[in-house]
Amino acid sequence: MAAKSRSPRKMAPRKKPGSTGQGDYYHVELTSPRGFETFRTKDVGRRGHIQRVAGKKADGGSWQTVKWLIGKQDAHRRGDRLVPDSKGAREVIEDLGAQPVHVSGDRFKVRARAGAGKKSDGRSGRRIRTKRAPARKATHRSRK
What we know:
By secondary structure, the chain is mainly β. It has a domain at about 25-110. It contains one helix and eight strands; from the N terminus they run E-E-E-E-E-E-H-E-E. The protein has one helix spanning about 85-95, and strands at about 25-30, 35-45, 50-55, 65-70, 75-80, 80-85, 100-105, 105-110. The strands form two sheets. Strands 2-3-4-1-8-7 form a six-stranded mixed β-sheet. Strand 5 and strand 6 (about 80-85) form a beta hairpin. The longest helix is centred in the middle third of the chain and has 10 residues, at about 85-95. It is extended and about 75 Å long.
């Protein structure tokens, strides 16, 4: 019997997040992810609805908002525009300073207008609300 030669499987290249249109979020890109070495995702408001993706540059600079992830239950697409369906999504889109424009799939890009309320460092200016743990009641036990 002759041994069959197996050719290695050719894997399809990885697709960019949000490019297929089948995800749970709309990706609203503020800046290019190039040049960042670390990324973090933070839930803003209720869990699983709106998330902020922040990146940190290789030179050890501060964290900068790279994009917003807006849940599909909080917004919908109408033509080339992203239309908010919830208060949180409306606040994020208003804070961007410009209307997100459709790129492909679930991806949108913000083209900043001059003086539209956007800070020069690329941050949207939105304050992140986080829940604080309830304060513990101090109890002092005396030793007997």
